[in-house]
Amino acid sequence: MWSDQDHECEATAEQRRQLREKEEAVKNLKRESRARGSGPPRKLKKLNPAIELMKMKMHAKGDKAVPLESRLFYRVYFPTANKVENQPMFFHKDWTVGRAIDAVATFGKIVNDNNMGDASKMLNFYHGDTGELLPTTASFSELTADKRLVSGQSVLLERGGIQTVDPALFRTA
Question: Which portions of the chain have biased composition (kind: Basic and acidic residues) (predicted)?
Answer without folding.
Answer: 1-35
